[in-house]
Amino acid sequence: MSTSAFYTATVPQSLPEDGENQINEFQISDVERFFELPSCVEWIVSKNLKRVALQFPDQFLKYSSCCVDEIAAAHANCDGVIHYGDACLSRPSETIPIKYVFGRFPMNLKVLKTKFEMCKFEKDELKLLLVDSVYAHSTDEIYRVLDENGEDGSFLKSKVAESPEAEIQEETQLSLGRLVDKRFFDAENVKVLFIGSSESPFLPLWLMSHPQCQTVVHFDPQTGELQESQLV
Known about the structure:
Blueprint: H1 19-29, H2 31-35, H3 37-47, E1 52-55, H4 70-75, E2 80-84, E3 98-101, H5 109-118, E4 126-131, H6 139-151, E5 155-156, E6 158-160, E7 172-175, E8 178-181, H7 183-186, E9 190-195, H8 202-209, E10 213-220, E11 225-230
Parallel strand pairs: 1-2, 2-3, 4-5, 4-9, 9-10
Antiparallel strand pairs: 6-8, 7-8, 10-11
Helix pairs in contact: 5-6
């Protein structure tokens, strides 16, 4: 089975201070960490797999690249799939083991903190932090920066589920691959703080699925830009 190289469709026109150095350093030294190669090897060995399909984001896939293409893997006689990139985490069949690797882009927390200081959030409004999967590894640090900026505990919690079998707590609900505070689903008006690429396909999908999200504050770590938009 042929595959394509893992890539991001976003090519930033400008980068925040030290951003270009971060990208260059990432390309040289962080490949193993970005692709989680040690855990992939451990997973293959632990499952005793002999032929593993590597599914990368690709416009030629039969299904959306967020879905595991089990049919193609079966046609290639694979006994396992490693799925790279964002994933909707829809529950696949039980016929083949699957590992998800979301990727790990660097997050400049200093730039993030500076931008947050410029953004005013109302204490009495419902707010949800939504993080694109390639920055999910920085979610706890992003919450910490929010707390330091006076938003201590004021954001509804959400995080990327690591697998379809992720444990769902009583106070959370799974939606589009995210474990989200249940209070979000009953709300009529929510402001979303989205951390991710300006061209991320996940944000419009989320907004179409959850019409209660009427305002979006969007921070793009690759460009360092922060924008707020009113949807209704």
